[in-house]
Design a protein that fits this description.
Elements: E1 10-11, H1 21-25, H2 37-54, E2 60-66, H3 69-80, E3 86-91, H4 94-105, E4 109-114, H5 123-133, E5 137-141, E6 143-144, E7 149-150, H6 153-162, E8 166-170, H7 182-185, E9 189-193, E10 204-210, H8 211-217, H9 229-236, H10 247-264, H11 266-286, E11 291-292, E12 303-307, H12 314-326, E13 329-330, H13 336-344, E14 350-354, H14 361-377
Helix pairs in contact: 2-10, 5-6, 11-14
The protein binds pyridoxal-5'-phosphate (PLP).
Length: 378
């Protein structure tokens, strides 16, 4: 009975996130064969609801990769960047850096445009980089989970296109918590995953892929097998996954997307996330010493990154984490590598508050109250 030691914690980290009981229970629904008639009962609605949430029609394909967000991001790199071409990885934090790392490790010619932690994409600097590197593909992070920065990817995609580059957007921690603005931004590939604002376990990388992306991929050599969007799309068009899916997660996702679209409602879900961002902002006003890392107007609706008060370093954050655990929560002590970097420069580290998925304003209010109490004793 090893499960008796598994702690029941409300996850206020930035993904995976807390899962509501009905979505959690859906993992125990019947197993099924992924090439059998039972498959479409799960994946038919999954594909349809994802399209509804993304506001895309048949002009884009939806692919579910077995893996996670990274699997789909890597597929973008492998499928869209040809030998001899340059990919420009625009990075405002750890996940922008990850996209660059994937490009380099896959042997692509990659240039990186990096912004300081907490900064959003500066379009003037991005334009200089486009002129300098003449990339064929540009990667962008919509919602930088390490810093809580929400980028204006609509403008960044338009700028990439002005210079003839195909934009790819990482929307991993946003999709499901706010409108992804896919039709307006028109990226050739938009990627997300299941364990963040969609509120279930990790296990699928989700991609919205345009016809332009498929045309481009057809000209790229060595796309691999499961990392090839052209191969993937053949099974996706049958509402299937290319390789065997996690059936428990498929059951969960089918139930959860039905809940999002038909019970909670998409607009209400987005409004709830904005309200939670505002609740955290109001808490920060009352809480001495905390400051936002991201500038106003660029703050994520699904997570908030805060500079800690003077004197509350990484060691103190770890104590806060353990005190919060005793109260039934998993507290987020900030993105590890970033905090090491900040503290080595003598700067204050950050902590993060995840307010994504199905966390309710009531849960968040209680969490912030408890956090305030724990901090008062830290
Ligand atoms: C913005 C962003 N991109 C990519 C990833 C990687 O996604 P996954 O962990 O689903 O592979 C994450 C995970 O935290 C993320 O937040």
């Amino acid at each position: 009975m090893i499960e008796k030691d598994f702690a029941e914690l409300a996850l206020f980290i930035t993904g995976p996130t807390w899962i509501r009981p009905e979505a959690r229970a859906a993992a125990a629904l019947p197993e099924f064969g992924h090439r059998d008639a039972e498959n479409i009962k799960r994946f038919g609605p999954i594909f349809a609801h994802l399209r509804t949430m993304a506001r895309v029609g048949q002009e884009r394909d939806v692919i579910l990769f077995n893996g996670s967000g990274s699997t789909a991001l890597e597929a973008a790199v492998r499928s869209l960047v040809a030998d001899g071409e340059t990919v420009l990885n625009v990075s405002v934090g750890a996940f922008g850096d990850l996209f660059h790392k994937m490009a380099v490790l896959n042997g692509k010619k990659a240039a990186q445009l990096k912004f300081a932690a907490g900064q959003a994409i500066d379009l003037a600097r991005m334009e200089q980089a486009l002129v300098e590197h003449k990339p064929a593909v540009v990667t962008l992070t919509q919602n930088e989970t390490s810093t809580g920065v929400l980028n204006d990817v609509e403008s960044a995609c338009a700028l990439a296109r002005k210079y003839g580059a195909l934009p790819v957007v990482d929307g991993v921690s946003l999709f499901g918590g706010a409108d992804a603005r896919i039709p307006e931004s028109d990226p050739v590939m938009y990627v997300t995953s299941t364990q963040k604002s969609l509120g279930v376990h990790a296990g699928f990388g989700i991609a919205f892929v345009s016809a332009e992306a498929l045309d481009k991929a057809a000209q790229v050599a060595n796309r691999g097998y499961s990392s090839d969007i052209v191969t993937q799309v053949n099974t996706a068009r049958k509402s299937q996954t290319l390789t065997t899916p996690n059936g428990g997660l498929a059951n969960q996702l089918a139930v959860q997307l039905d809940y999002i679209v038909n019970v909670e409602g998409i607009a209400k879900r987005y409004a709830r996330h904005e309200a939670m961002r505002d609740m955290v902002a109001a808490w920060v006003e009352r809480q001495p010493g905390f400051d936002f890392l991201a500038a106003e107007g660029f703050r994520s609706p699904t997570l908030t990154a805060l500079r800690t008060p003077e004197g509350l370093g990484s060691a103190g954050l770890k104590r806060v984490k353990e005190a919060m655990r005793e109260r039934g929560y998993l507290f987020d002590t900030g993105y590890g590598k970033l905090n090491v970097e900040l503290e080595s420069q003598g700067a204050r580290p950050i902590c993060r508050i995840g307010h994504m998925g199905d966390i309710t304003p009531e849960m968040l209010a209680k969490y912030l109250d408890d956090l305030g109490r724990v901090l008062a004793q830290a």
